[in-house]
From TrEMBL, chains A, B, C, D:
Gene3D superfamilies: Aldolase class I (3.20.20.70), Cytochrome b5-like heme/steroid binding domain (3.10.120.10). Belongs to the cytochrome b5 family. It comes from Lentinula lateritia. Its cofactor is FMN. This is FMN-dependent dehydrogenase-domain-containing protein.
């Protein structure tokens, strides 16, 4: 039963829907309703080859996890493989693909990359427009995203002089696990969109410096592949998007426990899709680039139709929207011994509730500005927490992410009481631009910047960074270059 | 007695002034002094066809309401009709008409419209310059208009997590009347300038979602036509510009009562014409586009001459400029049983007086920045009212309008105590761009944005939106895109 | 003894210096050292015709006041007159003169001028670059000048509604003298630079509305000419730059008393030349335009040489730099019965001293930002005075000038306690653009704006404008268009 | 033993490394490890002529101080000299050299230079890109550098009037030494990069006005040459970068004591290299300009390699990073009788410690924003010190530097209690643009601006400038032009 293209093509609707992925045939008829991205995106490829749409988004174990063995229908026949190969070979590159390829060939040499902004600049050039739109997009007018970064601009240092700093050690521990710097990789989905080795680039790039990687539930490599890519001394955390069905959620937890992941970061700020316009618009931008502007004709587009969820929204349609402090945390405690961190605390009041719920840590985060527009910048929440509820810092570990691009940003958060800070997009950009070596470069830049900042502030170790060393100024400094 | 053009043309001055409107002849000699826009604009067309100037501004019952039966002189003769039709057909389109037509043909398909800004962008393209200038213009340097919108930029959310939101209901009641969203159509005049179906587009577009429409005294459709276009379950409010003559004002109130309008919004912030420069300049812009720049020669334009009032000023010249709390509210109460809302409260002090006058509601508004330049933004007035006079919210309903363009804007106002928020220009833009379906699209976008915002804040219904969920920040966030 | 050019040309140095002005010959040898602009500017024309440099700056009585009868040497002979006339006629126009002429021919008709900004725009086009630079220049980086205007942007209205305003009267009194509006012409020198009729345009333009004109000591028309141009019911004030020699100062006071001027505004903020770079650079800009960029060669320009004072600095080199409260005010009181106002108070402390010195009024002013860079904006000083020393307003009249361009600006200052506000540059621009009729237009625009603002605030007369009607906001509104 | 090029060329690695400087041969093998800029930069020239790289950076006594007599190997032979001369002559100028030369020929005449900004503008044109990048670069995104200047923008004057100022004296004393103005030259390295006479231009330019020059440890002229260029009445201070080896540091102190330097400014804010990206990037910018953009190929640039320190970082690699209040100040006191000033105090807390350590003065400075990004602007530190710890001003002298460009800036700092203010970059720009005469021009401009400001504030001498004359405003003024 190797299949011909003709045979496959007869299963092209919702009653019987087959697709070809990487030269193999699958019956996804029963899966149509469960697909997080909705059935219509699959039906577009019903009876046809779906490889190019499928691969950049799905981890390698997705088919195995989601389809029964009987739905794996087996390989195409030789003629079909030959035909698809010819089709693939003859496919004309899009303008965006050509642009991206050209940019790839013009990347500056790595020794000219001296800041995270440099890495982002290269990534912006080499990424496909679709990947760029997915990575950089944020909610509504992208104000919270920008404010996350701008918040750091309001905090100045009161540097101390005449303190010995020839030896300066920026290492620390997160939930008891060693790290050479007070930073970690914050969970970010779909790294494969930016580079074929995706999340694995990050894993390998973090190994030498023991920077801890938080792996997203929506990673584009499987949790197992990422674990396999890690070195023995390396720590991985898991970012849990909790499925609405507890049993399904538990299966996911068990899997990562067994793979040796060391903590659960429960995502609470992204339980429904948000409004990321840049992401939603990206297929239109690409369409228009290839085939010209679309114009209105009556009947096209019902007034009440949904614009679609973009890439991001599709990933979370089955997540639990009814989590509570009373129900969810005790359940999680009851099923796992791993430390639990709440990812997505956005105000002081919830930080208090988290402490009362006795979780091990909280990650002050608004999801990089990608979820609730006008959510307070995490640094501002950290500052309020430090001013108003200092005791919280004794009860759990506090982290922040969002907008961190410089060693000074890291040091400011640490001064205010953060155990460590997470970076998401910067790691995606680094690996998109230069793969694994880009990740190493990012860490090396941050290390140099953090150590220089600490020394110039008179601090020889993390514990010497204290709240009195930063001041929130009441004017509006110039923006970064 | 069908009239020839020659006969009509003999009545071309203030002693005997006839005009042709839609092939019929009217004697407006006695009406010249009563015309809100002044006699000179009519005299420009004395003895001639005035249809093209008359129609986009006046409701269909204007002639009936303002002229005696004896002043309706009857139809033109056939030759006259023929001549006018030929003249009309041979009229060359202006550059602005051509531009607008071209834009109409290039509108993006409706399924690509995902924000209110998109609707405004299309409207800006397709509207005649004159309509655009009338809709978007505001007082003086348009600072209050811009500040209305910018005010929302200073209010951030303190989102709550771990609250059940899978079910989320944004419906509420305004003066006891149901609405699926805490929004309503704020009164805005002359919708016909933007689309032949004008206000009726709004009425029909609001029907499915039961969004309440406040109809302006200066609507370009008659109150009856709008009522006729509404569905049985739909609520209409009436925005009253009170005539200086109480009897005339009363006639207007009686009319809308009988038509089933459900509340009176008494306009108090627009009792004299204001200085809308963009509106005043618009005929010059169009003239120059057609025939080149005008230059100075001595004697042209007396120093003390008035620049004209623009479209807006003309509409209100006969309004009551001497309303008082002591006189006007009791009178209004005495003549109608409808709920009374004061539209145009601009400070806390007057909110208190309104409560003392026992009205049913107040609409904090500065008329979209179109009247008093440097009037405080309504959101700032709402914030002061909430901070300083919380008890007011128990005595009457509070609404705001001005600058609302996003679901987050709506939610912020509701958090601070607004029962609902009004949108004016956005509805005009939506119907100008796509007619009735544009109005439905606008509502559908706002519904999605409001529900998403509520869920991401941990609120499953309107009552769960509370003042502690917003914070007025003391820095200056980046502006919207 | 009509003089030949040859005879005149023999008196061309500081030992014997003759100049020709308007076809007459003057011996200015003894005057060289007394000339406020320094001797070098005169020596440039020694033995030659100086008319074109002399006329736009000097009032017609300057030669009479400054030279003895014996120094008036009499007319040129016919041949000399003939030669000069030919030279004049053959003089090629400069690029700047051509540009200015062209702009003059393209002025928009007066009925299209609807704001003070419109008048300024026209003036900027039609003025010679030199005049423009002199009028608009301010100290250093022109920050105080800009801040003067921007200060108004921070004050918002708390408008009151439901108050009778059909009748609205903006008239008031300044030092007991009637004015139809709470504004006056603030002293500004050298109006002739902008228009041949200079200050006289302002006088005549103000007559119908009884707007009071403060005439500068450095007016380019004589005090007598200006008085002669005024109507019987018109009030003139005098802006005194006190000469360091009391007797000389007294002579000036006696002159204006006899001409019927009604008050003395003693200038105290401009006792030394300031740094107006735009003014200083203007001859270089013009030179380069005509003849190309100047470049460095060694020896050109000693390091310690002064850049020159610009037009403005020259006017005040002989003024009294050692005035004190103890000495100067009593002296002034002793020599005149006219009301005394101190022009140039820049802080609350000096307002108190002025009240103690029992002067009749103070003009809060930083000279339009032309003197001390970073002097507080007058509106901010007024606000501090109102908040901190309310009783001062009962002891003397308070005025402000600087940055006023809108009716709202006027109303804000009046709300805060100003009896009236002065405008300087706007009157210069108005008369430069359209002469006397431009001045009338300016007043007519302001009247309309002031009345509209008052009505929309619920104020029917000046006394109803109170401090509680304005609020200084703590955010940064958008700038004017 | 005059050497041939062939003989020298055989010593081209780290085992035996000879270089040619100014036609003489040196054995630097043993010095490689001590070279502050690292060995690699020397090895680039091993066995070859290093003159062009060496000269613009090193003082003339560097070879004598750092190499043993036996390592001075003597002159090249005639043929070698001839060859090098020919090579030099045939060297094609780079695009940057041509640009700079052209700009030098187009400098505006000195009498058109009327502000420090003018001097900077010329310098930016005439400097080599490398020198410009070194001078103007600052840490990270150059925010602290910009904020240093912007801080002055927030302080406004409360000018006093009616005070005698015809005589105005801006002279004062610094550590007891006379100066005609409350300013001094703040230490700045490598003036030779901008002009062949480098620091000597500054020395000679300061002589007439007795402005005190603080000479950097890293000056590009020797301390002796600078002392020799000074006039007998002129005061020099010494900016000490303390070597980590006390004995080496002491040798440097003894040298300047003997040369007559009058005070030690101990640098404490620049003990490790900082991140000056513009400086680091400058060779790449120049390379690309000459030879095109560099692009990435695998293996080029290890991820963990350092980007290099730039010019600035190299100068301080051997400095003492373990200075403390307890150890360093007592040691310094024990070895010298000169007054001691701490340069680089960045917060109030350290100002208090400095007073307790009984030093003679503190220079509030963040090294012109070149070291710790987000260090508070010195003017803000001065303001906090004045508000919070007024008594400190009685215990030691306080100076600031950073961002001073106007006389108003100087006067503001003096009002707040600064004895004097330092300027660094402006002196480098002035001498780069016009040599010694540029320095005199700079001082003459500042003198005029300071005196004008004092007079317009009612201050006739430095002591009359008091804290109540400045106000820190709570809005954001427009930026300088």
């Amino acid at each position: 039963m190797p299949w011909s293209l003709q045979e496959v093509s007869q299963h092209s609707d919702s009653k019987s829907c087959w697709v070809i992925i990487d030269k193999k045939v699958y019956d996804v008829t029963n899966f149509l309703q469960e697909h997080p991205g909705g059935s219509s995106i699959i039906l577009k490829y019903a009876g046809r080859d779906a490889t190019s749409a499928y691969e950049p988004i799905h981890p390698s174990d997705a088919l195995e996890k989601n389809l029964l063995p009987s739905q794996h229908l087996g390989p195409l026949d030789n003629e079909a493989v030959h035909t698809l190969t010819k089709v693939e070979a003859s496919k004309k590159k899009t303008k965006d693909e050509l642009r991206s390829e050209q940019a790839m060939n013009k990347r500056p040499p790595l020794n000219r990359i001296i800041s995270l902004a440099d890495l982002e600049d290269v990534a912006k050039q080499v990424l496909s427009y679709r990947a760029w739109a997915y990575y950089c997009s944020a909610a509504d007018d992208e104000i919270s995203m920008q404010e996350n970064a701008r918040a750091f601009n309001r905090f100045f240092f009161k540097a101390r002089v005449m303190r010995p700093v020839s030896k300066c050690d920026p290492s620390t521990r997160i939930l008891g696990f060693e790290t050479t710097l007070p930073i970690f990789v914050s969970g970010a989905a779909l790294a494969k969109l930016g580079h074929p080795q995706g999340e694995v680039n990050i894993t390998k790039g973090c190994a030498p410096s023991k920077i801890i990687q938080m792996v997203s539930s929506n990673a584009s490599f499987s949790y197992a592949e990422i674990a396999a890519a890690s070195s023995p001394s390396q720590t991985l955390f898991f970012q849990l998007y909790k499925h609405k069905d507890d049993a399904t959620a538990l299966k996911r937890i068990r899997e990562v426990e067994q793979l040796g992941y060391k903590a659960i970061f429960l995502t609470v700020d992204a339980i429904v899709p948000s409004n990321r316009e840049r992401d939603v618009r990206s297929p239109w931008v690409l369409d228009d680039q290839e085939t010209g502007i679309k114009v209105y004709n009556d009947g096209e587009g019902a007034a009440d139709s949904d614009p679609g969820l973009g890439v991001a929204g599709a990933l979370i349609v089955n997540d639990d929207r009814d989590m509570t402090w009373e129900k969810t945390i005790p359940w999680l405690r009851s099923v796992t011994k791993l430390p639990i961190v709440i990812k997505g605390i956005q105000c002081v009041e919830d930080a208090i509730l988290a402490a009362e719920a006795k979780v091990d840590g909280i990650l002050l985060s608004n999801h990089g500005g990608r979820q609730l527009e006008y959510s307070l910048p995490p640094l501002e929440v950290l500052y309020r927490l430090r001013m108003q509820q200092q005791h919280i810092f004794n009860k759990l570990e506090v982290y922040i992410d969002g907008g961190i691009r410089r060693g000074t940003d890291v040091v400011k958060a640490v001064c205010l009481g953060a155990t460590a800070v997470g970076l998401g997009r910067p790691f995606l950009y680094a690996q998109s631009a230069y793969g694994e070596v880009g990740v190493r470069k990012l860490i090396s830049i941050l290390e140099r910047e953090i150590v220089t900042t600490m020394r110039l502030m008179g601090a020889a170790k993390i514990a010497e960074l204290t709240p009195d060393m930063v001041e929130r100024v009441n004017w509006h400094p110039v923006a970064k270059l």
